[in-house]
Amino acid sequence: MSTRYGRVAMGLHWLMAVLVIGMIGWGMWMADLPKGPERGWAFGIHKSFGLLALLLIAVRLGWRIGHRPPPNPALTGLETRLANATHHLLYTLLVLVPAMGLTSVNFTKYPLKFFGIPLPKPGWPDETLNALFSSTHKVLAWTLAALIVLHVAAAIRHALRRDGTLQRMLPARRGAE
């Protein structure tokens, strides 16, 4: 039995990594923009990629349900439990962060568009609900960012230990397998 992830799992992992890290950076940048067309454009892009992230995490969760992660013999029992807990929390936040952003958008006066295509909004303009879900979105996004830093730190630790854990999620070099 292979201890490496398959190509689809690797592809979804790295695509989500680029998307989520980009979204966090974009969100931090756009938050300080003054009100006006540039801010509206930036928020529109953020919303579109947030919807894309929500769709992609649904695909990733569907894939994960049907394809269990391969065993990692390099981990101790405690490390396995910590890795599992961290991955469960990552998946939870990867769902909740964009879901809270989308919910927040449903309570603004602004239209919801997916790369320019108008989408229906089940909500209504309500500043209180918008502020609640927007604040929740921000807190969860910062929590996700901190967890990503922890995840990267663990990957670096495994790389320094040369225990093969990092290589499980990297494409194999020709002739390496």
UniProtKB/TrEMBL annotation:
Keyword Transport: yes
Keyword Heme belongs to the record: yes
GO MF assignments: electron transfer activity; heme binding; metal ion binding
Membrane topology term: Multi-pass membrane protein
Annotated localization: Cell membrane
Keywords: Cell membrane, Electron transport, Heme, Iron, Membrane, Metal-binding, Transmembrane, Transmembrane helix, Transport
Cofactor(s) needed by this chain: heme b
Protein name, UniProt field: Cytochrome b
Gene3D superfamilies with a match to the protein in the record: Transmembrane di-heme cytochromes, Chain C (1.20.950.20)
Family from the record: Belongs to the cytochrome b561 family.
Family matches, as Pfam families: Ni_hydr_CYTB
Principal location: membrane
InterPro entries cross-referenced by the UniProt entry: Cyt_b561_bac/Ni-Hgenase (IPR011577), Cytochrome_b561_oxidase (IPR052168), Di-haem_cyt_TM (IPR016174)
Gene Ontology cellular-component annotations: plasma membrane
Cytochrome b561 bacterial/Ni-hydrogenase domain ranges (all copies): 4-171
TM spans (from-to): 12-29, 41-63, 89-107, 139-160
Gene Ontology biological process terms from the UniProt entry: respiratory electron transport chain
